[in-house]
Amino acid sequence: MASKKNKTQKLRPSSAKKDEGDALWDEVANTVKRQASSRISPVALPAKGQKKRPLAKKIAANAKKSINLRNNTAAKIDSDNSGLVTGPANLSQPVYAGIDRSSAKKLQQGKMVLEARIDLHGLSQLAAHQRLQHFIQKSTQEGLRTILVITGKGKAGRGVLREKVPQWLSEPPLSEAIIAFGASRPQDGGAGALYVRLKRARERL
After folding, report:
1. Contacts 24+ apart (CB under 8 A), 135-141
2. How far apart are CA 146 and CA 169, in angstroms?
3. Within a domain: residue 43?
4. How far apart (Å, rounded) are the C-alpha atoms in residues 159 and 106?
5. Residue 174's closest CA among 144, 204, 142, 143?
6. How far is residue 97's CA from residue 78's CA, in Å, rounded to a whole number?
7. Number of structural domains found in the chain
């Protein structure tokens, strides 16, 4: 047993040799110069409690904002950037689209055959709106193309329906069935009535 113990003790380095090794390592370490790091600075992490937003989600969010902005504009512009407003053509406006000049002129001059008419004069806004929707829906189902909508002029030409009806014709669901509309000729009611040109069934698809 004693011989094994002595053999083990011989394998252990002496404390003197250990001290010499440490001194040598310190000397070598002092001659080494630390090089500047070539690593790219790390990306700043989100604040605590803030979730990291993937790039795809960020792009989708920006696209949604862009779509909402376009939908909230008062007028939609043609895809060819011509500056023409799309939707039913209000022939009382200087700029409109969706109808050729020849047809627009005929409609304005009352040269298109009137196939049906409705008189909204004297009705409340709610009743007039409902009757107008029903009338246009029925007219399109029957394949009619040109109709007359009588609004009345109101006091001093400022009737409520005279102002509201063109607005209703320009908005869904009525706008989806209409090509154009404009003030009628004096013999058909003048400023108190509107000529309305309806789409064909295949044009509404």
Report:
1. 136/174, 136/177, 136/178, 136/196, 136/198, 137/177, 139/115, 139/198, 140/177, 140/198, 140/199, 140/201, 140/204
2. 14
3. no
4. 26
5. 204
6. 9
7. 1
Stated pTM of the model:
0.58
DSSP-derived secondary structure letter, 197: E
Pair 179, 88: CB distance under 8 Å: yes
CATH code of the domain containing 152:
3.30.1370.110
In a domain, 165, yes or no: yes
In a domain, residue 111? The reply is yes
Closest to 161 measured CA to CA, from 187, 127, 205: 127
Separation of alpha carbons 58 and 48, rounded Å: 19
CA distance 106 to 150: 19
| pLDDT cut 90: percent of the chain above it | 47
Mean pLDDT estimate for the chain: 76
Write the CB contacts of 99 (distance below 8 Å, at least 6 apart in sequence). Answer: 89, 107, 179, 180, 197
C-beta of residue 131 within 8 angstroms of C-beta of residue 120: yes
Exposure letters 69-92 (e unless 16+ CB within 10 A, then b) = eeeeeeeeeeeeeeeebebbbbbe
Question: In sequence order, what are the beta bridge partners of 119?
Answer: 150
Q: Using CA atoms, how far apart are residues 10 and 179, in angstroms rounded to an integer?
A: 108
Per the structure block, which two tokens stand in for 39? 């690593």
C-beta separation of 166 from 176 below 8 A? no
For residue 74, what pLDDT is reported? 38
